[in-house]
Design goal:
- The protein is of the alpha+beta class.
- The protein has two domains: 156 residues, Ribosomal Protein S5, domain 2 (2-Layer Sandwich); 125 residues, Alpha-Beta Plaits.
- Helix content is 33%, strand content 29%.
- It has ten helices and twelve strands.
- Strands 1, 2, 3, 4, 5, 6, 8 and 12 form an eight-stranded mixed sheet that branches. Strands 9-10-7-11 form a four-stranded antiparallel sheet.
- A hairpin with a 6-residue loop joins β9 and β10.
- The longest helix is centred in the middle third of the chain and has 16 residues.
- It starts with a strand and ends with a strand.
């Protein structure tokens, strides 16, 4: 089975507390976008899980989130005797804040639910997914959602893809990366003032009113505000200069996204940015996180 595993962006990201288990309590609005990995999952009787990836950066061992997703799914469903072969065509950059690994893990869970004929509900798939990674539950369903807790408490919001004129999304990932650990450490070392926190309710109202200006003008991510990465600031400034309605860093990675209401402006900006940043992509918003393509 082949699955299109879509990346995500954070329209908002706020950290509201730290949990005893080491995770952080988050409040964020996430959106699926069209940049995606292609994941192929084959069920067999070998009793082994194998992962092969097109990226030399991605390990193919038990540390791979797709491997972990298969292992957790088989254990949860009690069909440990089966084997799984996973092939990943990587397009989503790593350390980018776009949940590339989580998208792959979600794709494996969605595929196995079909291949094993388990028929699990969305909630059960989320329960499996949260044991793989905090962003996996969102990536299983996708669209536009409010995520709370460590990311596993999800509420559906009006989808950007349903707007009369869905926006164009421009993504730009500089070579510099930020590990999740370093990003959280930086945030934990300071007090988050109201000025660095997003107005999540304002974005929810804008989504409800299909007000793309209201969404774009309220993009905010506490990692973006605290880390203040020079390259990301330059990219944001460039996007706004070329007509983006708003721009922001996504997740704890270094990818900056811009929301455009003009394809022409987005293309001109992409052409300029590609001279300096190879990992620049024009895409759109998506209504789902995983799409079965075969």
């Amino acid at each position: 089975m082949k699955i299109q595993a879509n990346a995500k962006i954070n329209l908002t990201l706020d950290i509201v507390g730290r949990r005893p288990d080491g995770y952080h309590d988050l409040v964020m609005i996430m959106q699926s976008v069209g940049l995606h990995d292609n994941v192929e999952v084959n069920l067999n009787d070998s009793g082994r899980i194998t992962v092969n990836s097109s990226s030399a950066e991605l390990k193919d061992d038990e540390s791979n989130i797709a491997y972990k997703a298969a292992k957790v799914f088989l254990e949860y469903s009690g069909i440990n005797e089966r084997g799984v072969d996973i092939a990943i065509e990587k397009n989503i950059p790593m350390e980018a804040g776009m949940a590339g690994g989580s998208a792959d893990g979600a794709a494996v869970i969605v595929a196995l639910n079909e291949l094993c004929s388990t028929g699990y509900s969305q909630q059960k798939l989320w329960n499996i997914g949260v044991n793989v990674g905090a962003d996996v539950p969102f990536c299983i369903t996708g669209g536009t959602m409010l995520a709370e807790g460590k990311g596993e408490i999800l509420s559906v919001l009006p989808n950007l893809s349903d707007f009369p004129e869905p926006p164009v999304i421009l993504l730009c990932k500089p070579e510099i990366g930020v590990s999740t650990g370093r990003a959280y450490s930086a945030v934990d070392s300071c007090e988050l003032s109201p000025q660095v926190r997003p107005n999540t309710e304002a974005v929810k109202r804008a989504l409800a009113g299909q007000n793309i200006q209201g969404v774009a003008q309220n993009l905010k991510n506490v990692f973006d505000e605290i880390l203040q990465i020079d390259e990301c600031r330059k990219i944001k400034s460039t996007m706004l200069t070329f007509g983006a309605l708003g721009a922001c860093m996504t997740g704890s990675g270094t990818t900056v996204f811009g929301i455009f209401d003009s394809t022409e402006n987005a293309e001109e900006c992409a052409e300029f940015l590609k001279k300096h940043y190879v990992k620049t992509y024009i895409t759109g918003v998506e209504s789902k996180g995983c799409l079965i393509s075969d």
